[in-house]
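TOKENISE THE FOLD
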Amino acid sequence: MSAATVSISDISSKSEEVRDIAVGKVSEIRAINRRMRMLALNALIEAARAGEAGRGFAVVSQEVRNISEEVEILSKALEAELAEEIDAMSHLARVMNESSNGQRLVDLALNAIEIADRNLYERTCDVRWWATDSAFVTALAEPGNEAFAFAAERLETILRAYTAYTDLWLCDTSGKVVASARRGQFAVTGESVNDRSWFRRGLSLSTGDDFHAEDVSREPLLGDAIVATYTTPVRVGGRANGKPLGLLAIHFDWQAQSDLIVKGVRLTDDERRNSRVLITDRNNRVIAASDGMGILTERIEGMAHGPQGWALSKHGRLIAHHTTPGYETYEGLGWRGVIIQTPE
């Protein structure tokens, strides 16, 4: 075993081997000592039979017996002390191994949520940039079928280049979808979305530099697809301080993209068999899972307090997490990268 490959688990294994060796050797000493005591006893018996001639030999035999008893006492004490110290060392190694593994999983959880953050930051840039497109400004400033059709063509062009989206919608101030990128797949044109929280919050944004990022949810008008929706108003003249004419809503294909993130975390093959990699929202609801289970229905309990950390559940599961640090102008939504590892 080279120094480069030694691990805390190796130290723990070696300490167990040392304990076994020590206990074995002490047992051998005690076995030899028992034989010495038997010999001493036999010598005393023979000395007694010899009478006065065996008196000197009896003294020696008794001394051997006394020494044997002292050796027995010392060997028992040695065995107990060695076992106690080696058990303590083994426990310390296990604790260090748990701590090391826990922190490593925290780092991997951070890596997962950072990748998600960078991806979602790009979505915030997309929606603010595309909202200034002259086709969208004209369609909402001078509404009409021809303007709406051209806006839909522009949305289709964008979507062909940006395949990470489920759909892109242009909405007027009443909440009616007037143009969409996937007209042939989703019949959303003419539908009202004014009951969506992302519509109300997006339309109330102060400037064109602002955006609204909605928590992951299912969108009924997209066949219940799981999406992350980003919005910002389309404004007069495409100017940041212009009056809102309507809203651009872009629906990020969260399920497909997040699946790549949680399945791409660098675990060993053995770890993959007993680990779940998750992303949870601010309410600890699962919004992505490497095993595809519990998405939007399961809530994770038992995480360590604070923005990052790890904890062992009463069932021995190690739960590591790290809260989003945000990226650039995207502060994040309080999401977490989470890794749950179940003992084999």
Observations:
- Residues 1-6 have pLDDT under 50 and may be disordered.
